[in-house]
Amino acid sequence: MQHECRITVLDTKVFPEYQEKYLADPKSGPCPCFQKGDTFLLKRTAERDDFYHLMNGKFCGEAWDAISRYVYTALQGGSIMHKWTNDERMMIACCNDGTRPVIFKIERIDIPETEEEREWLEKQNFKNTAEDAYTG
Questions:
Q1: C-alpha–C-alpha distance, residues 98 and 5, integer Å
Q2: Which of 6-15, 71-80, 106-115, 126-135 has the lowest mean pLDDT?
Q3: In this structure, what is the dihedral angle of CA atoms 12, 41, 4, 104, given to the nearest 10 degrees?
């Protein structure tokens, strides 16, 4: 089975009070790299390895550092957030810029290559409920 990873920008936030108090440029504003709704589809094949090449500079380095472990897990077919999100193939995460964070949805996309894999995938339940949830 092949796997891809879709990253969607759900939202961008800005905290001007923190920027004014702590940043060299107190009027920095929201993140200039991402807009709500931006979508990135990553592949990891012999022909195209977006993970290894860090998306060829198409992604902010700080944001990549914050979410790359979830992306790697998705591309390898792993459970991104078992017993945390309502679908273990998905994670909501954000970059580590505390004055202008970007919130990402990271999704594993399963691509069956055989009829057997397709049938197996149809039988899977990737859902998590409040009763399943790990709360730390």
A1: 25
A2: 126-135
A3: 0
